[in-house]
């Protein structure tokens, strides 16, 4: 099967009338007046970001989700996406399932695939996603906007995806029941696009949690030239973990576990009630976990007032 056969059979579907999609040297679309364009790219590498035996339908879904999550963090809406795939062999069964998962999400959120590339790799599957979005001019939620006395919030639960990953990779004891409770968090994450939209004009800064809460919150602190405290006992996670794992395993996963794709954001105290209302309206769990301070650094504080020593870092490729 040739490169062009793959593209035509699995990755060429109709797009909006005002777009030129797959099939030409470039895709074309018009940007709306009064909007900034938001662009993000992610790479997913076999045996680094996903296991070789992962369900290709879920992988198609997740591949797009990780980039949509970047748009969500900035309050942007998706416009279109580009897809690149490198693989050793053109496995038609795998491609059919991957494209099914990809397009199911693409259609759901209104993010048409308008271009990309396919090539042969020497080893393993490599997936590259570029998303293009738009956000009203001047309303993007950036990392560098945190202010002193902001509250720090996080959506959803932390740690479950990391626990599933560590079970599959034999880094913690295999527990089939625990894996069944956590595997969806790893393989079927969802980008918080609606939350990102609702936080425009409410949050001062935001980031999606891809490399772990501590590492990603630190990006906000560094960009804003500020510090923070986080109340460990306020961090949200599935209480089922308490019955299955040691406190140290839970701590590592909720502080440093990646692949979460929830939003961490800061907002002034005067927006507290608005955030509670957003949580109710969207039916999304939002947890107040700490605050922003002027002194650089990050303290993790327990209920008894003690501070966690030697905070471990999150995921890093290098």
Automatic annotation (TrEMBL):
Keywords: ATP-binding, Kinase, Magnesium, Metal-binding, Nucleotide-binding, Thiamine biosynthesis, Transferase. One of its GO terms (biological process) is thiamine diphosphate biosynthetic process. Mg(2+) 3 binds at residues 25, 70, 208. Mg(2+) 4 binds at residues 25, 40, 70. CDD domains: ThiL. It catalyses: thiamine phosphate + ATP = thiamine diphosphate + ADP. ATP binds at residues 116-117, 143, 210. Mg(2+) 2 binds at residues 42, 70. One of its GO terms (molecular function) is magnesium ion binding. InterPro entries: PurM-like_C_sf (IPR036676), PurM-like_N (IPR016188), PurM-like_N_sf (IPR036921), ThiL-like (IPR006283). This is Thiamine-monophosphate kinase. Residues 23-135 form the PurM-like N-terminal domain. SUPFAM superfamilies: PurM C-terminal domain-like (SSF56042), PurM N-terminal domain-like (SSF55326). Belongs to the thiamine-monophosphate kinase family. Its EC number is 2.7.4.16. Substrate binds at residues 49, 259, 315. Catalyzes the ATP-dependent phosphorylation of thiamine-monophosphate (TMP) to form thiamine-pyrophosphate (TPP), the active form of vitamin B1.
